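#structure-requests
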Amino acid sequence: MSATYIEGRYVQAGPWAARRIQRQVQHLTADYRAGERREVARRLCGPDGEIAGQAAARALLLAAIGPAVAFHRLILSPGARSGLWRRDDLEEWTRLVLADLGRDLGLRLTWVAAVHGNTENPHVHVLVGGSGEKTHWPGKGRIAAVELRRGHYRLLQERGDARAVEIAGRLTPWPAVG
């Protein structure tokens, strides 16, 4: 059984897609506890590193709205037993797993993510644009729809497990107590 947890939904394209993107980007940086929303200082990241704020994240996703799907909402977690607790490790894990997904799809994905450490299980909220740039022929450089099917979620779980083991193997173990 996979340790990696994946949850995903998509939001259809339409006249309200920009508003939904704005709301979801705000959700990435908010904390919801006891039914109340609080803004917290969460770093946004993407395939190429840190993203400088909500406006930049919205602009990236608005440029990647697909013909049928505006964006995909994913929650990814390597699992509590993975040993990946630091934000930098979770961001690296997310980049590697989504790069694997992009290779499988043959697309350069546009995505924005934020690590959430507000539960016992570290997790990452990700918004993936509804379109991406084709990375190989035929059609290299053209824009194509990002269609995530059941097999892609299985791939995310498999690659998530493998990437968590890879990153955890490079981490310095905690010193023994006693």
